[in-house]
Q: What sequence folds into this?
């Protein structure tokens, strides 16, 4: 079992500052690796020894920025080739578009993406831009998207028809609060029917009380414990990767978000490698 961690701190066209969040999470992974390397007593992290690679993309020159999407897709392809599991630490949510595009290239109907996000990222209202942005990128994919299922959104604008153009199913945070057993059962069926599964976490899926470090917080979000229930419902060796995006350390409070995400990443790595 090998995991490739890709730090992809792209944060143009919305939520600038989240690139620093991706880098900080990359540092957290390096810290896990350093601690493991130094540990002489047996520990659970032994499962990670020698099986974790980390790569970091840079967006410091015009050239690096201008072909960000192509480079992103290359990193995804290389990551899948070299490893069994891909952890994508993105800047804004748009930074995950190359991943979704790659996942959509072969037999998109058999790949399930469970997208945890307060928003549906297909916005086209009077005050949103037509240009590619972090709020509409789902409508800008270069090819077919995989089967998209949102969990935890709190959108109050989009009609069901509009949502159905991009999402095979949506389970709102309210659905989860009122009928968690039904949602979890439906997600289990979705995951069982898929050949492979990707988990796409936009940090604002969580309630801002638990994860304040986001630029577009919405109330009534997921609690960390409900998140673990959702994760358990879709988890299996078919999960090929997970992306994290929209963490803005500039808005964090007493490192609450960093702590939550750092713990979650270590938990996920162990969950994958101890299988
Ligand atoms: Mn969002």
A:
């Amino acid at each position: 079992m090998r995991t490739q961690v890709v730090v992809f701190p792209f944060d143009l066209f919305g939520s600038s500052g989240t690139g620093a969040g991706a880098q900080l999470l990359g540092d957290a992974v390096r810290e896990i690796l350093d601690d493991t390397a130094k540990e002489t007593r047996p520990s659970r992290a032994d499962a990670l020894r020698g099986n974790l690679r980390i790569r970091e993309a840079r967006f410091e020159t015009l050239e690096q920025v201008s072909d960000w999407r192509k480079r992103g897709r290359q990193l995804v392809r290389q990551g899948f080739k070299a490893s069994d599991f891909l952890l994508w630490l993105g800047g804004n949510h748009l930074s995950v578009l190359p991943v979704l595009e790659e996942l959509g290239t072969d037999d998109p109907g058999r790949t399930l993406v469970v997208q945890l996000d307060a928003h549906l990222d297909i916005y086209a209202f009077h005050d949103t831009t037509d240009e590619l942005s972090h709020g509409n990128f789902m409508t800008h994919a270069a090819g077919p998207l995989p089967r998209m299922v949102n969990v935890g959104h709190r959108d109050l604008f989009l009609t069901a028809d509009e949502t159905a153009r991009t999402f095979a199913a949506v389970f709102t945070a309210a659905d989860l609060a009122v009928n968690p057993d039904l949602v979890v059962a439906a997600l289990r069926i979705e995951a069982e029917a898929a050949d492979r599964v990707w988990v796409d976490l936009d940090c604002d899926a969580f309630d801002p009380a638990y994860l304040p470090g986001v630029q577009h917080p919405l109330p009534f979000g997921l609690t960390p414990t409900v998140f673990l229930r959702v994760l358990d419902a879709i988890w299996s060796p078919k999960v090929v990767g997970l992306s994290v995006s929209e963490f803005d350390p500039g808005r964090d409070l007493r490192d609450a978000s960093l702590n939550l995400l750092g713990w979650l990443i270590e938990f996920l790595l162990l969950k994958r490698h101890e299988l």
Residues 93, 117-119, 202, 204, 216, 246 surround manganese (II) ion (CB under 6 Å). The domain at 3-273 is CATH 3.40.800.10 (Arginase; Chain A). Residues 18-38 form the longest helix (21 residues). The beta strands are 3-8, 52-56, 85-90, 111-116, 147-153, 169-172, 196-202, 239-245.
